[in-house]
Amino acid sequence: MAAAERRAFAHKINRTVASEVRKQVSRERSGSPHSSRRGGSSLGVPLTEVVEPLDFEDVLLSRPPDAEPGPLRDLVEFPCDDLELQRQPRECRTTEPGVPQDGKLDPQARAAVEMYTEDWVIVCRRYQHLSAAYSPITTETQRERQKGLARQVFEQDTSGDERSGPEDSDDSRRCSGSPEDTPRSSGASGIFDLRNLAADSLLPSLLERAAPEDVDRRNEAQRRQNRPRALLTLYPAPDEDEAVERCSHPEPPREHFGQRILVKCLSLKFEIEIEPIFGILALYDAREKKKISENFYFDLNSDSMKGLLRAHGTHPAISTLARSAIFSVTYPSPDIFLVIKLEKVLQQGDISECCEPYMVMKEVDTAKNKEKLEKLRLAAEQFCTRLGRYRMPFAWTAVHLANIVSSAGQPDRDSDSEGERRPAWTDRRRRGPQDRASSGDDACSFSGFRPATLTVTNFFKQEAERLSDEDLFKFLADMRRPSSLLRRLRPVTAQLKIDISPAPENPHFCLSPELLHVKPYPDPRGRPTKEILEFPAREVYAPHTCYRNLLYVYPHSLNFSSRQGSVRNLAVRVQYMAGEDPSQALPVIFGKSSCSEFTREAFTPVVYHNKSPEFYEEFKLCLPACVTENHHLLFTFYHVSCQPRPGTALETPVGFTWIPLLQHGRLRTGPFCLPVSVDQPPPSYSVLTPDVALPGMRWVDGHKGVFSVELLAASSVHPQDPHLDRFFTLVHVLEEGVFPFRLKDAVLSEGTVEQELRASLSALRLASPEPLVAFSHHVLDKLVRLVVRPPVISGQMVNLGRGAFEAMAHVVSLVHRSLEAVQDARGHCPLLAAYVYYAFRLPGAEPSLPGGAPPVTVQAATLARGSGRPASLYLARSKSVSSSNPDLAVAPGSVDDEVSRILANKGVDRSHSWVNSAYAPGGTKAVLRRAPPYCGADPRQLLHEELALQWVVSSSAVREAVLQHAWFFFQLMVKSMALHLLLGQRLDTPRKLRFPGRFLDDITALVGSVGMEVITRVHKDAELAERLNASLAFFLSDLLSLADRGFVFNLVRAHYKQVTTRLHSAPNPTVLLTLRMDFTRILCSHEHYVTLNLPCCPLSPPASPSPSVSSTTSQSSTFSSQAPDPKVTSMFELSGPFRQQHFLAGLLLTELALALEPEAEGASLLHKKAISAVHSLLCSHDTDPRYAEAPVKARVAELYLPLLSLARDTLPRLHDFVEGSGQRSRLASLLDSDTEGEGDIGGTINPSVAMAIAGGPLAPGSRTSISQGPPTASRSGCPLSAESSRTLLACALWVLKNAEPALLQRWAADLALPQLGRLLDLLYLCLAAFEYKGKKAFERINSLTFKKSLDMKARLEEAILGTIGARQEMVRRSRERSPFGNQENVRWRKSITHWKQTSDRVDKTKDEMEHEALVDGNLATEASLVVLDTLEIIVQTVMLSEARESVLGAVLKVVLYSLGSAQSALFLQHGLATQRALVSKFPELLFEEDTELCADLCLRLLRHCGSRVSAIRMHASASLYLLMRQNFEIGHNFARVKMQVTMSLSSLVGTTQNFSEEHLRRSLKTILTYAEEDVGLRDSTFAEQVQDLMFNLHMILSDTVKMKEHQEDPEMLIDLMYRIARGYQGSPDLRLTWLQNMAGKHAELGNHAEAAQCMVHAAALVAEYLALLEDSRHLPVGCVSFQNISSNVLEESAVSDDVLSPDEEGFCSGKHFTELGLVGLLEQAAAYFTMGGLYEAVNEVYKNLIPILEAHRDYKKLAAVHGKLQEAFTKIMHQSSGWERVFGTYFRVGFYGARFGDLDEQEFVYKEPSITKLAEISHRLEASPGSVGVAGTGHCAAWGPEGGCNHADMSQPHVPRNSTQRGLGTTWWRSSKILTLSTSPSWIHRRGAQILFLREVQVTHL
Nearest to residue 294, comparing CAs of 15, 535, 52? Predict the structure, then answer.
């Protein structure tokens, strides 16, 4: 062999120097990830410890905002308008205020008026809505932001199922001929076709010669165009379950309403019309036996009937003319009835007599009964004239509302549990059943039924003895029974038409229960609709929000049976008396219908001749604003004379009684049984009760109670609870200072009022829940006032701080307990949250007050701090001096001490608990209380200081109550602090001087105490610990907006130290880590999170005297000539300086780093939580308008730069998105040094290392990454889930997209080679993770999800039916997945229950799937473009580096992978542009090194040249043309590219199913056009070579058309493949490719012997060229070595030196033309022979393989080979036992006749299964289309020239028994003959030429 040939091959061999390998290995080891993050000295401070933060305020003082340019100034400091005080007018539903306008007000009324009229005082953080907590990123908001996305064009979505374009007819005709008839050189028609095709558009300026810098600049500018600003807008929204920071402002308190129904009374008509009839409507709950609404009075009489009462009526008020009413129902029930009662004017006779005419007379009998009717009308007119002011009961009926709302058929479900009796505190909007606490009422809802118009025809006459409500409830219960007694009674016939419908949201012309006009009220003259006040069936826990002061009087019964005289027709008159004089009756009684609005007196209906009547009347009164001791209700009893008699008065008073309304300051309500006086009450009777036996008075029935009456107050002024009344009374007494004062039976003086007040504070916990909740705002306001303004009694300040604090704790606890059913997800009571946010204010401090500090607070002697100090020093601290702690005293300090405390020590450890505090009871500073003298100044305290102090020193019982609801007290403190700053004009004060040091010390102790409670309770009461943890985090977050931020950071650090200390001993550290992560996430949700991280301050390098590990490893950076910049290094690592300056970001990323550690406990849960926290923050940055500008976003991205290092180091444990795809593997390492290679032939050097040094790839089976070590070591630890991995990669891409490119370039320059390799592997994984799946994938996923949901339903049914243990399954899953472990005290909540129902809909609409595909396409495009941008940065970094070849090779691999994956047309344009620039700048990557990159590139370019998208074809054609031109310009030919393009096209033809040759032809024409228009190369042979190559490719495409025609015909398909392979005998690489394709096809069809023959030919081809290149004794001498297997292999010797020079570039350069490749081919051939049963041939194959293995001493494989030989020989030996091998049956089929066309006189060999007999093939031939029969041998000519027949011989090879001594060529044959006629050769042709290698073999000898 010539020396030149040997040298030509030698340059392909990797020559390795041992020192280089060792250096590479050492670099790899030094750059390995996870080098002990926990104790990493490179970080200065271990990650498990929290660095001491910078003094935030000092840093800002040293760097004013003006130092930053333009938009970056806003990042330096909080905006000056960050905090503002808003006065929001309280919502008033009515057009006029409902409070008393003038007159004297009693203290309670005055307090109520102030409460219900003052505006809301809201402390507003103007930018809070921009935080992640208040602007959540949800699926809905993401979809809103995704509007307007451009639709990306993807190849797979255009017409993925389309086959290629129309085939050329000439190509089709050429397919039918035999290989010998169609030589490869005959392509004239193909050339003509190619020249006549239309080319795609050419890229402008492609052929211009431009500088690489200009090309890069132009490419970058094009990539930046029309890019989405927010990457994460395209990514799914963060997980809702992890959003612990989510919160919202509470709804303002509103008046409570239930479900509202509108009832309109349309008409009332009787059979006879003789007198006016009046109606009453009310709702009754039969189940609860309670009237649940007030009465609505209506009058539907005609004008003529109303005229009968003209003598008694005044002009009716318009409010009394209402005929429609709105009822409210808080607790819907199937047992609610609308009861309608009718009354008429009193007349002589009992009820039955009066009803008789209505029951007897009919309207049709009017003429017959004319005289009777006239008589009745005349009598009625007389009665109306005389008795018009009195009424009598007439009739009644009831409407079952459940029937109206279509719920009549539902079963009754009664539930009396306490939890179901509590309604929700909601707004005034109608609530659905899901808002109810009572599940039993869900069967009936009054909110969404269809309106109904009813006609009530049957009324029941009232019975004089059964008028009470108790009787009514019996009637209602009877009405629901099928056999109702009422139905048997004769009814009063009438027609009442009413309309029932759900009430509109804002009805017009509506009057409130106080007759105020409800907005909107367009016209005062319109007939109104009345809102009817509800009396809820059970307790309603809602605060009063408007002034209401109504009193309802219900007379029940009167017993005058012992009263002497004529007392039968009894009427009760009710008057509200302001005094004892008759003229002092107040007009406060509401009128009924068609009368004045208010009256001074009202009467009950009269029951005729009944001395013991029962009443159902309801009197509604408006209580005056000032109720005094003289105010009382006066009841006067009259005997009404129905029949006029001379000398007899119409009405005769027969008794008197009264009820004083005020008793000991309390409004008297409830049931009363009063004695009745016969005589007029004496003077001064009003201050006494009737129970007092006044001298000289006569009483009915001996002063016994004979009159039952009940008072019910609906009042937001009077609490009607003894404990609340007592508390309010004492507070009002102290406010007014009126002593002595009578409280019940005791007279209070100044000396005893303090004791009573303390007792009343303690008794507040005994108050009833409903009034306590209703008056919660009043109570809390009074308690706050007692704390802030201690009362002064006898000149001394009363110390009530502790008592008020304890009372507040108990009140809050009671309110929480009452409203437990409506707490939000964080356990907050909405009522209390609304109180703090809207209603709470500092007493006496109004925003309208002039600026300046409030008056100096009294310094109480109980807290004598520094009595001898200068007065000037107290100015800053006097307002915080506490007077409420009796056990606290502080020794005086010096001036320096004062100053030092004001400046807030940074080094003080503030984490001590209150237990160790000197302030605790019994501490060193605790002293006995000394009552101070009153100093005369305004005793005003600061609430936040008192709350903090009292909390710290509180007793255990109170502290427990406070801890349960810590959030409330934290929020109260925060608002108090904010109001203190805003009202005192202190916002301009430096933050260190805003609050005194003593208060900050209390805060420190408090935070430490609460933090310790979180830690200690986490395993006892996990739910409480979770709530406390969140409350503490929100409190510290709020403090960041108010106080010294450095101080707050130190509090955070102290809390972290507490948690860290406990982690070592905690039984379940995961729980604490989870809470700490939630704590961090809440802190980071602050709206000024970016500013809090000091983004504009330069990062200082670590001041450590010894270099860190990272810096020492970075000094070996391959790309930087100078030492790495420590500042840049610190920015990209979680270094001490980074965590110190970017404190919050450092905490967050540290949590992420610790969670990602391989040894982290509970890793899967922590992974999700930590990554979700980062993801949520980045999403909020994307949507924040403050960071929209690129420079600002880049500065924000600097806070997350360490995320890149974290993701890079976590790479081995990320989900491998490439593994799921069979045709791709992870990018192999160019820099790996310790991966175990496959086939270590030499044994001296790892081939992976050798390939890495040479810049070549690894074997295709390798699964190692760019930079990782052994897979077993690198993938230790818990792997991340696919979801977490994808989210982490998305976050890393966000940083890469938004970070400053120059900064990334400096970082990349400082990276060591292994680190940069891992970064490239990370980018590779990003491409795989975000690859576009296609629209069909979304449809498939949707169908699979639907099936999964059906499966889940089936499992749920199994759980319900009891076939599986649902409880055990839930417990098991919760133990596995819940961070709280097996906690018995954990209440089942939504947040920790894993069987919660998903909110995602299963089946999605087509539009939704289209939208998902649109978003996914944009995400894939943007992610790939970000990767491309980063690759450009890396390329620019390593351009001048010595090691650039290895890095650029890896870069190009990433680019190639991106081009090979499913990408949009937009990305492919930019990706191909980048590829062109890379090849232009670094041609040696493709043309001087390994050919794999060139082969991969050519394959991808050709695939895109066949794209259906014209834009992709344009750029792919341009790239392919420039690739050829670049190769040509280097060596004046482009043989390598020509070869690789041809091979790539062949590979595409053999493997791709939906390949479009039509579009590829257009691309070939485009490349021809480029060559013709390239002016620079016209003088060369380049254009001619391009033309030849294009025509050759076109011929391959022609064969492709034929192959596609016969995809379903495997015999013809293989015949075509054989023809193509023969045509490539001058191109060894391509021939080898097609031989392998044929072998694969044979293997698919089960023809293993034929596949083995193909592999033998391939091995012979490789052996031939190895023999030409190198003379090695252990290698086969060429194809001659294989002729014992098959004589056909000698075909491979046709290629020799006279045909091809083996040293020509680009030839025989594939991976198979090596010793390793030859070994692989021989092993595959042996395997196929074994499967085919040809064991004799296995031995012949291994004869060529064994010498190679022996030469390399590969004993492992030698052992395997000899074992396989033993198996083969053993199977041959088994024939002696009677086993016989029978192979396929072969048929020689000949075609004779003109009908067969080209097949006439052609013969083919067919192979059939071994069991096929001659008769079977005969039957098949006969059954073929057109078969007419069978002819004998030698009779073909008898059928004539137009006929046709075929001749078939059968041969069956076999090895008979006992033939083991024969050789390979002694196989036996059996044969016979048959002749079949056929008029159509199609079936025969389809079966032709299957066994191509048997065609040249004698039939009788295999």
Answer: 535
Alpha-helical segments (H) within 227-367: 303-307, 351-360
* pTM of the shown model: 0.77
Q: Rounded distance, CA 1323 to CA 1306, Å?
A: 18
Q: What is the DSSP letter of 835?
A: I
CA separation (Å) from 116 to 238, 253, 341, 716, 1404?
42, 11, 36, 9, 49
H helices within 225-345, ranges in order?
303-307
The 10 Å Cβ neighbour count of residue 1548 is 20
For 296-342, how does the pLDDT look when each residue is reduced to its tens digit (9 = 90+)?
A: 999 999 999 988 888 887 789 999 999 999 999 999 999 999 999 99
Q: 3-state class of 399 per DSSP?
A: strand
Report the alpha-carbon distance of residue 85 to residue 1038 in Å, rounded. 16
Q: How confident is the model at residue 207 (pLDDT cuts 50, 70, 90)?
A: confident
Q: How far is CA 456 from the centre of its chain?
A: 53
Q: What is the helix (H) or strand (E) element at residue 84, kind and residue range?
A: strand 83-88
Burial of 441 per CB tally in 10 Å (0-12, 13-18, 19+): buried
How many residues in total does the chain contain?
1902
Residue 839 per-residue DSSP state: I
* Cβ partners under 8 Å of residue 300, min gap 6: 265, 267, 268, 277, 279, 323
- Residue 663: which H helix or E strand, with range? strand 662-663
- Calculate what percentage of the chain has a pLDDT beyond 70: 73
Name the burial class of residue 626, with classes exposed (0-12), middle (13-18) and buried (19+) by CB atoms within 10 angstroms of its CB.
middle
Instruction: Give the integer Cα–Cα distance in Å for 1569 and 1572.
Output: 5
Assess contact for 1015 and 1059: CB atoms under 8 A: yes
CA distances from 1814 to 1620, 1789, 1835, 1877 (A): 33, 12, 20, 15
Cis peptide before 520 (omega within 30 of 0): yes
At residue 382, does pLDDT exceed 50?
yes
Q: What is the pLDDT of residues 901-940, one digit of tens each?
A: 433 343 333 333 333 333 333 343 333 333 333 333 344 6
Give the mean pLDDT of 525-530.
92
Q: How distant, in Å, are the alpha carbons of 194, 319, 1523, 1585 from that of 1573?
A: 17, 95, 16, 15
Closest listed residue to residue 615, CA positions, set 649, 678, 673, 571: 571
Beta carbons within 8 Å of 1216's beta carbon, 6+ residues apart: 1226, 1325
| pLDDT of 765 above 80 | yes
- The phi and psi torsions of 494 (rounded to 5 degrees) equal -160, 170
Burial tier of 1578 (Cβ tally within 10 Å: 0-12, 13-18, 19+) = exposed
Q: Is the dihedral of CA 1639, 1642, 1646, 1648 positive or negative?
A: negative
Question: Helix 1610-1623 crosses helix 1628-1645 at what angle (to 10 degrees)?
Answer: 170
Is residue 582 packed enough to be buried (19+ CB in 10 Å), middle (13-18) or exposed (0-12)? exposed
Residues in Cβ contact with 240 at an 8 Å cutoff, skipping those fewer than 6 apart? 136, 138, 246
Q: How do residues 1627-1656 score in pLDDT, each as one tens digit?
A: 787 788 888 888 998 988 888 888 999 999
pLDDT tens per residue, range 1822-1851: 654 433 333 333 333 333 344 445 555 655
- Identify whether the C-beta of residue 449 lies closer than 8 Å to the C-beta of residue 406: yes
User: Which residues make Cβ contacts (< 8 Å) with residue 230, sequence separation at least 6?
Assistant: 145, 1182, 1183
Question: Alpha-carbon Rg of the chain, whole angstroms?
Answer: 49
Rounded to whole angstroms, how far apart are CA atoms 1564 and 1590? 6
Answer whether residue 634 shows pLDDT above 60: yes
pLDDT digits (tens, 9 = 90+) for 871-888: 333 333 333 334 344 343
* Segments of 798-910 assigned E as strands: none
